[in-house]
Amino acid sequence: MGLALGIFGPMRSLILPCVLWATGALAQTPTTVDLLPLPVSLQYEEGVCTLICPWQLEVDEAASIELFDMLHAELMSLRPPQQVQCILPLRIGFRMVAFDTLMPPEWYQLTIRPNDIEVMAPSAEGLYRGSRTLVQLLEQGRSSGALPCLTITDHPRFPWRGMHLDVCRHFFGVDFVKQYIDLLARYKMNTFHWHLTEDQGWRIEIKKYPKLTEVGAWRKGSQIGPYAAQTFDTLHYGGFYTQDEIREVVAYAAARHITIVPEIEMPGHAMAALASYPHLGCTGGPYEVQRGWGVFDDVFCAGNDSVFTFLEDVLSEVMELFPGEYIHIGGDECPKTRWKECAKCQARMQAERLKDEHELQSYFIQRIERFVNSKGRKIIGWDEILEGGLAPNAAVMSWRGTEGGIAAAKAGHYAVMSPGSHCYFDHYQGDPANEPVAIGGYTTVQKVYSYEPIPEALSAAEAQYILGAQGNVWTEYILTPEHVEYMAVPRMPALAEVLWTPKDMRDETDFIRRLEAEFPRLEEMGVNASKSMYQVRLTLRQGEQLGEIVIEANGGKPTQPIKITLEDDPPEPWESEMVLINVSTSPYDGPISIKEPFIVTVSHYDGVDLDDRSFPASHRTITFNLATAHPITLSTPPHERYSTGGAFTLVDGIRGSSRRVDNEWLAWKTDVTITVDLGEEKDITHIGIGALGDTHSWIHLPQEVIFSTSSDGSTFSEFGRAHPKPNASGKVELGTSVHTKSRYVRMEVNSAGTISEGLPGAGHPAWLFLDEVEVR
């Protein structure tokens, strides 16, 4: 192989050994290929490249010996099982080339000819990105023994294509962290945000402060189950990375051209550090590493100079381990409670002429930034670092929506977009009734793919400050590596394509088709990818008759048939009669109507065997009472974030569960009056409604519910009242029982109003979450 310009020095080459088999017919050569993410340009050429000859790998030494060794190991595993002797080997070359024009960063070109595959790029980084495309191509050509000839020219849309992993709530060892980095590399992501310190554990060895791992890396138990339940185990839990292990992971990522951004949380989320060194807090302790999730009042003392000495020492060791440009300093969810009561903090505010504790946080962040800048690095923090004034050179990671990124970009600061609406992969991704317990939210693969990182509010000049975006995996409810993979994949490749592929080339239908082709490869790799996208979604609506519900099923795999199972719903606890349970399964060919209780199960199947269970199923238990599927009116529409299904959601026969997502509950930030028309006068002995309490999420039970009835819909008489326990948690049925005869029932639900001091979200309006109306 000749050198492009004669300036790169010798090539390393190796003929990969082949196994001689009898020549036989090859499987049909694929005419197209499926790649994730979709490249900028893919042009098919005449001809076919046969893969069954011996392979000769050639890599410019300018590209690095590490790349050669890595590719050699990978390509050995991708050779077709059937191989023959050939006159010439198949040459696979990786070549560094120089161009007269400035090429985009990570640019590469991949060409497949009948007896030659070549990847060329002006940088080692570009060669590696091209090698990821080649690996996917060879995986597809392995069974057929051939690939179509083609030319791919490619480069990313954004320079920051990131994934995050929280190892503090639950710890994951070095081997899995490397596997996680491999997934990032596969989809051409280039940034790994490693969340290393938290209230629940300090995970990085700091030589100068050994107690951070002797004490701070371990807790006496962990919260289990839904947050609202507040239940804990008593198992000693923890772990940390030694500095040698950190170096090992950093080197592993660097070989794959992935930058690791370490996060050292400050000034909040610091309980593990305070438990290790109590003098760093405002009260002096005692403190302990937290067992539960959430936000805690004890934070680093902003008035104590020893805190800054400690953090500078810690960051010095961190920066020696991580050579990347950015150090993440957290900055999110820092309560000001202790600072308001701390004499040292108040003295600092007076000395620095700071008007409030928000400016004190800004002082804290800016002081840390000056130190980090003095070491030739930059800081990035969650969007709360905007409060009180942004540090001069800081970048912002926008997680509470897009507003933080917009504000940063308009002020001339770089921003990474990571809004919870689209980029939090700890949210549910399928029917919550059939998913592992998650922290909340509902973020499907399709929703991730629909995300546009450039906010419309930005001008073209301002948009240049958006570095890209990042998917976050917080692990409060994720205990194992397999669960991390389940939550991250396939949402990770969806975000990867958003960040790599030009906006006008993205097509959801085509992406889903290519993603389907990726699942068998992920399975072969041992990746526990979620297939929740194949869940059939149930939609319920009012039937033509009162008390009738129409059920529609929408497939997650449009070309695959759907089956539906109806199982008699057992009687309610207050019903004494026994019923025979009947179950029937049939192909679904359109909407069905029901007027009695059923457990409904829908899923795709192979089209032949109704017992096929290879696809995930969706279940709904539909119950009936006097209000079910009857006309309902609301005095105030629900908040747009929690309004799926509209008012009918409250009479659709499905009771909301403690797994709060936006299609099970309706929510308000104000009072609401609900009226149901039963169609005719009926004997009534009970009226009720479900409500949810989860103060951590700013969701409070109502102060009061007033129940009333009417025969004409105009004049209502009080039926009774319900007063839930203040700040109670979990799902609560609120109701009252009296005998009357009426046609209309009404519930005046009074919200909790403004959240009290000392509770999460203090000063903000409480959320009011309501579910099924119950009339018996």
Key structural traits:
alpha/beta, 8-stranded parallel barrel, 7-stranded mixed beta sheet, 17 helices, 35 strands, disordered N terminus
Structural overview:
This protein is an alpha/beta fold and 776 residues long. It is built from 17 helices and 35 strands. An eight-stranded parallel beta barrel has the order 8-9-16-17-18-19-20-21, surrounded by five helices. β19, α11 and β20 form a beta-alpha-beta unit. α1 packs parallel to α2. The termini are far apart. The N terminus is likely disordered.
Topology summary:
Blueprint: E1 11-16, E2 41-50, E3 55-60, H1 65-76, E4 90-96, E5 108-113, E6 116-121, H2 124-141, E7 146-154, E8 160-166, H3 174-186, E9 191-195, E10 197-198, E11 201-202, H4 211-214, E12 218-219, E13 223-224, E14 231-232, E15 237-238, H5 243-255, E16 259-266, H6 271-276, H7 305-321, E17 326-330, H8 337-341, H9 343-351, H10 357-374, E18 378-382, E19 395-398, H11 403-410, E20 415-417, H12 420-423, H13 445-449, H14 460-463, E21 466-471, H15 481-488, H16 491-500, H17 508-525, E22 537-542, E23 549-554, E24 562-568, E25 583-587, E26 592-594, E27 598-604, E28 618-622, E29 632-634, E30 666-668, E31 672-693, E32 704-710, E33 717-722, E34 730-750, E35 768-775
Parallel strand pairs: 3-4, 4-6, 8-9, 8-21, 9-16, 16-17, 17-18, 18-19, 19-20, 20-21
Antiparallel strand pairs: 1-3, 2-7, 5-6, 5-7, 10-11, 12-15, 13-14, 22-23, 23-26, 24-25, 24-27, 27-28, 29-31, 30-35, 31-34, 31-35, 32-33, 32-34
Helix pairs in contact: 1-2, 3-5, 7-10
